[in-house]
Amino acid sequence: MSKRADGSYSPAWRRASKIILWPLIQAGMKHDWHGQDNIRNIPADRGIILAINHLSYADIFADSLFGYEAGRYPVFLAKSSLFDIKVIGTIIRKLGQLPVYRGQADAALVLKDAEQGLRNGACIIFYPEATVTRDPGQWPMVAKTGVARLALATGAPVIPIAHWRTQQILPYGSFRPHLVPRTTVQVTAGPPVDLSEFEGLPLTSQVLRAATEKIMKDVTGLLAGIRGETPPAEPYHPAIARRKARQEARGQDGQAITETPADSSTEATPT
User: Fold this and answer.
1) What is the C-alpha separation between 106 and 188, in angstroms, rounded?
2) Residues facing residue 116 across a β-bridge
3) Backbone phi and psi for residue 250, each to the nearest 5 degrees, phi listed first
4) What is the pLDDT along the chain (271 residues), one digit of tens a residue?
5) In this structure, what DSSP letter does residue 197 have?
6) Helices (DSSP H) in the chain: which residue ranges?
7) Residues 6+ apart with CB under 8 A from 193
C-alpha cells in the first residue's frame, strides 16, 4: 500500500496548490455555476462523492474549481502505479489524491483506499463512466458500478453533477486547448442521490447496477437541463454499439455478395 494513501495530505502543499492552480484555472475558462449549496450543506468533515459526467480531459480543472468554490478541496482517484513514480508520486500523495488498485480479483480491494479516504472526510471527484463518453451526442454512457460500491460501502452522500462545454476547451483526442476566447463552462450540482432503498443490502451485481443507474439518471437529468435537450431513452453502451456495428458490416458484406452478378466475365461483343 502506498504511503499516506488514505486521504491524508500536506497542508502546505495544498495551500501552494490553491495559490498556483486555482488562478490558472480561472484564467483558462469562464464559468456558470449552479447548485453548490448541495455540496455546502454536507458537513465539512464528512466524506462526499461528486459523481460527474465525463466529456474531456479539461473536466478535472472545471470540476476541481467548482468543488473548491463550494468549500471543499476535491481529490481524484489515480492508478496506484503513479504513486510509485518519484516526482509524480510525491506530489499526488502530498495533495491527498487516492490510488485505485486495478486488476484485483476482489472488486472491493480496487477502491479500498478511496473508502478509507471517505471515512477520513475526503471529497472525491468520481467519473462513473471511467472514461470520456463515446456517445455520439455526448450524453453519459452506461457507467461502471464503482461509484455505487463506494457510496454503499461507506454511506457517503453522492452529489450528482453535470457539466457542459469543457469539450470545447479540449476536445477528446486533442492535446491543443482552445483558450481564446475563454469558454463559459456550465456546471450544475443536484441534491444527494437517494440510495436509501439499497441500505443494508448485500452488494450484489444487481444492487450495484441498480444504484449506479439511479445515480446516472440524476446526472443525465442535470445535463439535460443545462443543454435544454432530451437525452436518449437508453444510455449508450460501447460494447453493444461495437457489436451492432460488426453485425451491420457483416450484413452489408453479405448484401454486396448477393448483388454481384453470377458471371462477371461477360464482355460486350464488338460491332
Assistant:
1) 34
2) none
3) -65, -40
4) 334 444 577 888 888 888 898 899 999 999 999 999 999 999 999 999 999 999 999 999 999 999 999 999 999 988 877 888 888 888 888 888 888 887 765 666 778 889 999 999 999 999 999 999 999 999 999 999 999 999 999 999 999 999 999 999 999 989 899 999 999 999 999 999 999 999 999 999 999 999 999 999 999 999 999 999 999 999 999 989 888 888 888 877 666 555 555 444 434 434 3
5) G
6) 11-28, 37-40, 59-69, 86-94, 107-110, 112-119, 146-154, 166-169, 205-227, 238-259
7) 51, 151, 157, 158, 159, 160, 214, 215, 218
Cell 461502471, residue located: 144
Record the cell numbers describing residue 173, joined without a space.
Answer: 483526442
β-strands 158-164, 184-189 pairing = antiparallel
